[in-house]
Write a structure and sequence with these properties.
The structure holds 2 protein chains of 2 kinds.
Chain A lengths: L1 H9 L6 H48 L5 E10 L2 E3 L7 E9 L8 E4 L1
Chain B lengths: L8 H5 L4 H10 L2 H10 L5 H54 L2 E21 L5 E21 L12 H10 L11 H5 L9 E10 L6 H4 L1 E7 L5 E7 L9 E24 L2 E21 L1
Antiparallel strand pairs in B: 1-2, 1-7, 3-4, 4-5, 5-6, 6-7
The chains are: A alpha+beta, B alpha+beta.
Chain lengths: ~110, ~290
Amino acid sequence: MINRIKEKLHNNKGESIAEVLVSLLISSLALVMLASMINSSSRIIQSSKVNMENYYSANNVLEARTGTETVSGTLSIKNGSKAVHLRYGEGTVSVNYYKNDKAPSGKQVVSFK
Amino acid sequence: MYFNRNMNRQNLLKPNNHLWKLRKTAKGGFFCSFTGKFSSQTGASISFALLLFLVCAVVGSVVLVSGTSAAGRLSKIAEYDQRYYVVTSTAQLLADKLDNYTVTVVQKSEETIEKTAVYTYDSEGVVTSRTMTVSSDTVAYSSDINGSDGKASASLGQSILRDAALYLIFDPDVTYNFASQAAYESNYPALSADKQITLNITHTAPSGISADALAVDAVMTIHPGGDINIKLSNASGSANEKYELTMSLKPDIKRDFSNDSTVTRPDDDSETTVNTSTKTTVIKWTVKDIY
């Protein structure tokens, strides 16, 4: 196989103009396709990087649980169907939720305190 | 296609010429065509162009896939982060509420002895002797859990650590009546093996927040010595998706026993003695570790 390739490369026989043109067309198509794929990939990575930075920046607020945009709700504990108080007299505990809406595809990350 | 000097139009139409060979090999499929191309004496520009196309397509696809997978990873990160924040937030809330929580258990026995004077007289009605005899002897038992909890009955569920104290000092099933002798005689450590309690922590979240995603399952293990481990994990999701975290609480247990006796004499002929025995157990839990 190797010998045949070497032979093919060393022989000096010509080709038709049509064959050369088709080859050139295929080669240029391949190179254009490769370039556009690399370009698209680069743009996706750049956009992903920006999203990631925004997401983690919002997560820092979430981590500290000091964000201003909070909403409140309640937390309760059960053992089977029986309610269990966290502390005596505290059947439910009021909590504040902190949201990060910067995650892609509409996903939400929530912490609470 | 290649024309050598000796080739003429007629040769082109012969079955053994180059064009004919190409057609024949093309009918035999790609592999035959490819091997035929290498064995032929004509050019190979199309073969190499196709090879270049294939290489470019593969390399381009790899680059594109790596780029899109980097973007797709972010949406997965949000899911993982949500699970992490739910469990850590719950652990932090429990730690805030349970750290330095104190439960005081007082078991009391109160014996009341009532004596009355019994006189003996001689024939002339003069007192010859006076003895104090026991007219009644009763024992009352009581047990209270107070301190941080306030006085309460023996039922479970009034607070997590109060339940733990009940298991540690009384019967593991906590069926005692606090006014019984059995309750008074129970001592720490009553548990001979680990006691596990499963807890479900749920939220009533406002609109816009998924309460299901915030639900956490907890398994509280009370060790006979009083150490408590609370294992927290996400309620939803498959086992390998759940984030797990364990919080350990260490007890500081102080026990005290005291006796007291009070004698009252409402009049010369009666006497009441109250003997009180008090067992006090104070358990203070502190959060030792979250891991």
